[in-house]
TrEMBL record:
<feature type="binding site">
    <location>
        <position position="59"/>
    </location>
    <ligand>
        <name>Mg(2+)</name>
    </ligand>
</feature>
<feature type="binding site">
    <location>
        <position position="130"/>
    </location>
    <ligand>
        <name>Mg(2+)</name>
    </ligand>
</feature>
<keyword id="KW-0460">Magnesium</keyword>
<dbReference type="GO" id="GO:0032259">
    <property type="term" value="P:methylation"/>
</dbReference>
<feature type="binding site">
    <location>
        <position position="98"/>
    </location>
    <ligand>
        <name>3-methyl-2-oxobutanoate</name>
    </ligand>
</feature>
<comment type="subunit">
    <text>Homodecamer; pentamer of dimers.</text>
</comment>
<feature type="binding site">
    <location>
        <position position="128"/>
    </location>
    <ligand>
        <name>3-methyl-2-oxobutanoate</name>
    </ligand>
</feature>
<feature type="active site" description="Proton acceptor">
    <location>
        <position position="197"/>
    </location>
</feature>
<dbReference type="GO" id="GO:0008168">
    <property type="term" value="F:methyltransferase activity"/>
</dbReference>
<dbReference type="InterPro" id="IPR003700">
    <property type="entry name" value="Pantoate_hydroxy_MeTrfase"/>
</dbReference>
<dbReference type="GO" id="GO:0003864">
    <property type="term" value="F:3-methyl-2-oxobutanoate hydroxymethyltransferase activity"/>
</dbReference>
<keyword id="KW-0479">Metal-binding</keyword>
<comment type="similarity">
    <text>Belongs to the PanB family.</text>
</comment>
<keyword id="KW-0566">Pantothenate biosynthesis</keyword>
<dbReference type="InterPro" id="IPR040442">
    <property type="entry name" value="Pyrv_kinase-like_dom_sf"/>
</dbReference>
<keyword id="KW-0489">Methyltransferase</keyword>
<dbReference type="Pfam" id="PF02548">
    <property type="entry name" value="Pantoate_transf"/>
</dbReference>
Length: 305
């Protein structure tokens, strides 16, 4: 069955895993870090086997896959479910799981308990937390608890209501200072990398130059240490116009729609499945007379294989 083939990777040599240190070495060597989201087993395999360094199970799963209006309704159980599926498909990339809204805001203890679940129950190597200075206690405690943390500042989608929409952040001198301070605080607290989302290129350049840990940009210009995009944005699978910062690499919607329409027509027109796509009785087994067709009746054995 095709799903069995999907699981089979053939003879598999052990794969050296991307670690936090590998990302740091890339920053220091000026080699761009590649990162992409994935939410399920097949896309995780495709992304990992393409050699992407960091795979993020983003809470963007809520919008990209689950059909929510924003990321706020995404639950721990949904994130764990998708992270488990992705972890079964990733062998090389650093696997980062997003802490969903509500899983770390109430208390540091909540944050630790939930972050540990991603590592212990779902195979994540790190968690990502939105917000800057206000979460340094949690990040420091997670570092103590051996949980790697990726920070995320700028346009943080979990703050959509406070921001009044998905708006570029850090456009005033005051906001720039605040984001620089956030980045420094995250690094000091032990974050292994910082996602910079939706900020002016010039600000991302400054933060990246000052930061001792890698910055990974999305809508933050080309001068970050790495770039991340949402899988469904790359493939036109969002049913909406792309954001300015995003680039479409293929038209997945067109590709899938054409194939689905072809399948529908083949079934409706009885050209699928063909005889070659059917199983047959063994030659020695006869069909009961009442279900034989005329041509069956002419054959001594009814198998046409
Ligand atoms: O949830 C997500 O996909 C993200 C990335 C876009 C950084 O947070």
């Amino acid at each position: 069955m095709s799903l069995t083939q999907l699981r089979d990777r053939g003879a598999s040599a052990p794969m050296p895993r991307v670690t936090a240190d590998v990302l740091l070495q890339k920053k220091r060597a000026g080699q761009p870090i590649t990162a992409l989201t994935a939410y399920d087993f097949p896309t995780a395999r495709l992304v990992d086997e393409a050699g992407i360094d960091l795979v993020l199970v983003g809470d963007s799963v809520g919008m990209a896959v689950l059909g929510y209006e924003n990321t706020l309704p995404v639950t721990m159980e949904e994130m764990l479910h998708h992270t488990r599926a992705v972890s079964r498909g990733v062998r090389r990339a650093l696997l980062v799981a997003d802490m969903p809204y509500g899983s770390y805001q109430a208390s540091v203890e909540d944050g630790i308990r939930n972050a540990v679940r991603f590592v212990k129950e779902a195979g994540a190597q790190a968690v990502k937390i939105e917000g800057g200075r206000k979460h340094v206690d949690l990040i420091a405690r997670l570092a103590d608890a051996e949980v790697l943390v990726v920070g995320h500042i700028g346009l943080t989608p979990q703050s959509v209501h406070r921001m009044g929409g998905y708006r570029v952040q850090g456009k005033t001198a005051e906001a720039m200072d605040a984001l620089c301070a956030d980045a420094q605080a995250l690094e000091a607290a032990g974050a292994i990398a910082i996602v910079l989302e939706g900020i002016p290129r010039e600000l991302a350049t400054v933060i990246t130059a000052r930061s001792g840990v890698p910055t990974i940009g999305i809508g933050a210009g080309p001068d970050c240490d790495g770039q991340i995009l949402v899988f469904h944005d790359l493939f036109n699978l969002t049913f909406s116009a792309p954001a300015k910062f995003s680039r479409r690499y293929a038209d997945g919607a067109e590709f899938f729609s054409r194939a689905i329409a072809q399948y529908r027509d083949d079934v409706a027109g009885r050209s699928f499945p063909s005889d070659a796509e059917s199983y047959h009785l063994p030659r020695e087994v006869q069909l009961p007379r009442e279900v034989q067709t005329e041509s069956d009746a002419e054959e001594p054995h009814l198998c046409k294989a």
